[in-house]
Each structure stands twice: as C-alpha cells, then as structure tokens.
C-alpha cells in the first residue's frame, strides 16, 4: 500500500497552474495566468451574459502516476466571478511507493464567486491519490466545490482495485482581529483493502460524491430546497448545514457551510445532483442561469 509522507522531497511537480481573476469593463477576466508542465487552460469563455468567466483546466499528460504533484493556485479578486472546471476526468493510474497528489490553494476576496466543478476523479487498479485543498475566503465571498469519485476499470472486472484515496479541504475566514480562523475542515478517506462495501462505509455503492457550499446567506429555506433535490436523486444523500460561531473582520457573522455527501452506482446521478444544487444556488443568490458547460 502507498504511504502518504509529510515531506514531499521525493515527489515531482508535473504540472503547475497560477490563475488570478479580476473585473474589467464590467465582466470578470483573467488578469494573470501562468502554467508549466502538464497543466494548462483553454481560452477563457463566457457562457452567459452575467460576466462570469469560465476556465477549463487541461492536462495534456493524460493522467497521474506515482510521485506526481500537480499544484493549482487561484485568486478571485473583489467582485470577480469564476467557474472553474476540467476538460475531462482526472485519471490516477498505478502508483508504486508514493501516491499521486494534487494541491489547490484558493483565495476569494469580497463579493467574489468561485465555483469549482471538475469532471469525475477516476482511480485505477493499484492507484493511490491525495488531494489537498486550502480555501481562504472573505466573509462576503461565495464558494462551491464539488467532487465525484469513480472506481476505474480493472482487468479482473473487480471493483475497488485502487489502494487509497484521501481528500482534505480546509476553509478559512479572518475574524474581527484579523486572525485566520478555520471555518470547516472536511476529510474523506477511502481504503478498499480495509473493505469499503460494508455497513458504515459505501454500503454496497460504487461511486461517491461530496459538495461544499460556503456562503453567509445559506439558511434553512435553502437547505429545504437541497433536501427536496436529494429526495428525487436515486443516490443515497446526506445534507448538513453547519458553521462556526465567531465575528468576522467586517463585523458580521461567519459564513455558513452546506455539506452534501452522496453514494451512488454511477457518475451521472451524482453529477446531476451537484449541478442541480449549484443551479439552485445560482438562481437564489445571483439570479443567474443554469450551468451549461457543453463538453460533449
């Protein structure tokens, strides 16, 4: 089984992406962009009239292997709006000794919007993968992050042939004294060699998803809308509305956090749920049309 060492000296940075989005002439636009190695982006797109910019991340390398590190850094300036996605699924192949790793550092300023809805994460036979997300938000920012995890094909046709997956997301907001305070720490670990199909783990399902929404305007009414969507979904879905009790730098309360966990038997049903929840948030908070990424 792969180990997850703290020191990264043995890892190799295969791809690096730096993106900063601001507002110019009434619409959001990349102000600076840098990419190196097996990461790049497509030309920025505007899929609607709201001024939100959509950016597709490209990985021409085809997939992640042992010891690879992919570093992403995103900054959304005051009032800017970014929809970030991937051109295709993230594929993790066989790893030996060291996992593949992706780190993502995101900063969202006042009234900024960051929606991150990548295609599914597929981990193949004997693969280990670690994903670390660090999100620092203004109290008036809006963050939505989704992930769908899919087991990859194996020559024996047996499911769950990968070794281990670890996903960790930390969300931070500055309090009234300017100190960086944790708002949410979310950790997901799936380890098939320890058995994942039984009671209390995947409960016989093959796919899982998680969706985080951070916004000060989240309330019980919005949660009821999400619960109604969850009831229509064929997947098993759990929804939690939570948060931290402290005063932010602007004198207002800390943003609230909506966490959606789902277990299903296919990528499509979980992805459809995530899109439906994202569209509900877009309608309620921004009066914006539904997401239509038109990839296929």
TrEMBL record:
Cellular component, GO, one term: cytoplasm
Pfam families: UreD
Keyword list, A-Z: Chaperone, Cytoplasm, Nickel insertion
Keyword Chaperone set for record: yes
Domain of life of the source: Bacteria
Major localization listed first in the record, in broad terms: cytoplasm
GO molecular function, one term: nickel cation binding
Localization per Swiss-Prot or TrEMBL: Cytoplasm
Homology family: Belongs to the UreD family.
Purpose: Required for maturation of urease via the functional incorporation of the urease nickel metallocenter.
Complex formation: UreD, UreF and UreG form a complex that acts as a GTP-hydrolysis-dependent molecular chaperone, activating the urease apoprotein by helping to assemble the nickel containing metallocenter of UreC. The UreE protein probably delivers the nickel.
The name this protein goes by in its record: Urease accessory protein UreD
Gene (name only): ureD
